[in-house]
């Protein structure tokens, strides 16, 4: 099998694109794909500062590596969720990645913030699934860090597999408001929010894993223990089976939705005008934002537990 770009021996075959590449040409293909996604969706420019949310996994580190190589001005943001060995390993790998390349990394450890709450403590106190608490905490701290650092954009490593699985889940349950918001660029709905972008939305998990391997990126291979049994994994598995039989179907599903389906949902009611949370000052539809409500609930539940003990 020969590289489709230079005719050297290919080491990667991409059935979804009906192509194959040698190592340098795959690296070029990956970075060019990221650049094209950024341009196609007008995500950001070379004049803007980009905060890259990195988890220590292959996608976010591959994204950061590609953005740096494409000449963008970036800083990393690592959020320590307090999830035992998984969080320790992912923080170690993220710090090592940034140090080796001389990149600036901001680290926010949830246990050490003023609220002092890691995800396991929130889940235990409120008896909510960890991922639901995690989503609220991540959004809040990503928004806060981007605002505090004066960044124009927050980039995350969501890849094609994530986006296609999310789309399938939203279609399965006809989640109209979520379908309206499923775009690779979310423009801010309040001056204290920044633009949120997903430059890997057309890049498959296989491609980012291959890129990370070929670039010598040492990423955390283990998944978060809380992801076991997640519904999204069922959707990913279904889409992988479809992809195996019909290469390219994942990208077609998402890309066709974005070009032809998404405009049909754009008329779904937008969120109400946002004010600012009385407790933390971040944008909120009510007096208190979802994050602060969750923190208050933890306090209440803990007080009740002490009172009943
Ligand atoms: S699997 Fe759940 S708890 Fe773990 S990082 Fe993802 S959202 Fe957070
Ligand atoms: Zn080549
Ligand atoms: Zn708040």
Give the helices and strands, then pairings.
Elements: E1 12-14, E2 19-21, H1 23-40, E3 49-53, H2 58-69, E4 73-80, H3 84-101, E5 105-109, H4 119-126, H5 130-148, E6 153-155, H6 160-172, H7 176-181, E7 185-186, E8 195-197, H8 205-214, H9 231-245, H10 249-265, E9 275-276, E10 283-284, H11 290-307
Describe this structure in words.
Helices cover 50% and strands 12% of the residues. It is of the alpha/beta class and 309 residues long. The protein has a six-stranded mixed β-sheet, sandwiched between helices. The chain has a two-stranded antiparallel sheet with strand order 1-2. Helix 4 (119-126) crosses helix 11. The longest helix is centred in the middle third of the chain and has 19 residues, at 130-148. The N and C termini lie far apart (69 Å). The structure holds iron/sulfur cluster (SF4) and zinc ion (ZN) (2 copies). The site of one zinc ion has 7 residues, from loops.
What gyration radius follows from the Cα positions, in whole Å? 20 Å
Strand content is 5-15%
* Helix run count: 11
Distance between the termini: 69 Å
Q: What is the share of helical residues?
A: 40-55%
Strand order of the largest sheet: 5-4-3-6-8-7
Task: Count all strands and give the number.
Answer: 10
Globally, the shape reads globular
What oligomeric state do these chains adopt? single chain
Structural class: alpha/beta
What is the N-to-C order of secondary-structure elements (H for helix, E for strand)?
A: EEHEHEHEHHEHHEEHHHEEH
How does the major sheet shape up? 6 strands, mixed
- Uncertain ranges: none
Which ligands does the model contain, each kind named once? iron/sulfur cluster, zinc ion
What is the residue-mean pLDDT, rounded to a whole number? 95
